[in-house]
What we know:
It comes from Effusibacillus lacus. It holds the Pfam family SpoVAC_SpoVAEB. Keywords: Membrane, Transmembrane, Transmembrane helix. The chain crosses the membrane at residues 27-47, 54-71, 83-112. The protein has one domain (2-111). The longest helix is centred in the C-terminal third of the chain and has 28 residues, at 84-111. The radius of gyration is 16 Å and the shape is globular. Helix 1 packs across helix 2 (28-44). It has 116 residues and is mostly helical. The model has no long low-confidence stretch (mean pLDDT 89). It has helices at 2-23, 28-44, 48-55, 57-60, 64-81, 84-111.
Amino acid sequence: MTFVWAFVIGGLICVAGQLLMDLTTLTPAHVMVVLVVAGAILDGLGLYDPLIEFAGAGASVPITSFGNALVHGAMQEANSSGLIGIITGIFEVTSAGISSAIIFSFLAALVFRARG
Length: 116
């Protein structure tokens, strides 16, 4: 049942993003920001962690989990380190994913040529 719920919840998040693109004038970049902010708000309200517990990868893989990670890291470090923890917590939690994206993008740019 875990796989079914992961598929359903992850699919619903994707459907929400697709509906935002199809039914509004929002660009994909705007929709991405909306989904990240939605994940951040849900984590701030304490609702995203129970969603991850319930749906597993269905909630932890979509872009909404990036907003969740930002807020979660900031709140966790703010509790232990004070005001400066807000900044350091964001970087501590998300640094591996962002670093990987930069490194793999650079490697892809070395291998492939851009058209134009």
